[in-house]
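Checked the freezer inventory, then went back to the computational side. Two predictions to log before the end of the day. The first one is the construct we discussed on Monday; recording sequence and tokens without edits.
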Amino acid sequence: MNKIGFNVLVWSANMSDELKPVVDRLKTIGYDGVEFLLGSPDDTAYKSIGNFTKDIGLEVTTVFVVGKEQNPASDLAAIRAKALDRIKWGIDRAHDLNAKIMCGPFHSAHAIFAKRAPTYDEYQWSAEVLRSAGDYAATAGITLALEAINRFECYLCNTMEQLTQLVKAADHPNVKAMFDTHHGNIEEKNFNDAIATIAPLLAHVHISENDRGTPGDGQVRFDEAFMNLAKIKYKGWLTIEAFSRNDPDFANSIGVWREYSKPWDIAEKGLKFIKYMSNKHGL
């Protein structure tokens, strides 16, 4: 069975010792790993949490985003240089956490739009930055798993077809792709074609409901998703990414204005759901 993880963003985007009781309970529930956002400025906190998770026998994956002033797809070389520096910082923090995966839509600035379709040059600029980032990630044994996200958060990569184009342009063994069922539910025609398209590059999967609540409680076609992941013999993380208003600053930044499900309900029911679906489809 694939390893199952849980993203702690449902509680907090901040990296601090306050997450340790959460992480400990996730271990008790039965998770194989936890996923953290790389964003908090206190570098020492990452090593502390990394040591704690290692000591209790949990693995770690990470998620990362960049802003307007660190945009890999910018037409300004100075901004692209800042993007590479910021991605390297993220790789360092992932290494501090003992993570082997750094996923997310850091191919471009989150929620920054050009008011037009993406251009060939933007893909090339982003790919150039990601190729250099891949070199740096390789020294730490980390895979960069890029994410296509929905049209309301990004214009460069919304679909697996676009993401495949970008990852192939980056052309680096440490630059791969991920699939998120929430974004795919919005942007893809069907999961069959989407997963088949990204299969050769797939390194990480987020299991996320359409409303970002408990997986299995909403409208995402999870039978189709799990069936096709099994079809391609996917071997990697199945990580729940859900959101709440527990961390108001983070919630406000991503447009989370209400509670979808109680965090521990998501964790407990979500784990059972993933195990059930994995067994059902032979994943």
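The second is the one RB wanted added to the comparison set:
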Amino acid sequence: MPARRIDTGEGRDALAAVTAATAAGQKPPRPAHATAVRYLLQLLAEKAPGNSVEVRVPPFGAAQVIQGPRHTRGTPPNVVEMDPQTWIELATGVLTWGEAASAGRVHASGVRADLSGVLPVRP
């Protein structure tokens, strides 16, 4: 069953709630955090459709993006994984790919696992 599409208003509201909580030094509410992460993954998948790179943001979601060879079994050859806060910062342009990679906040493997050309997604 495909994931439920997140409405633009719902996604932006969740992102605003996460941003406000983070700015106040508070832990974002889990439902808003999950929705914001999934919404930004959805925007990435729309911006860079494909199946050659899997972007993982545990525990909230994952998306397959970028045109190229499709994998069908097991772990894909191109994987990018990061925590939810790093993903939100990358997707909204607060953090660049280079900054995140050099700080060790992104774990990327595979020749297509550089997302610098498709980030930020700017909701």
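For RB: The CA atoms of residues 61 and 104 lie 20 Å apart. The chain has a mean pLDDT of 92. Let me know if you want it refolded.
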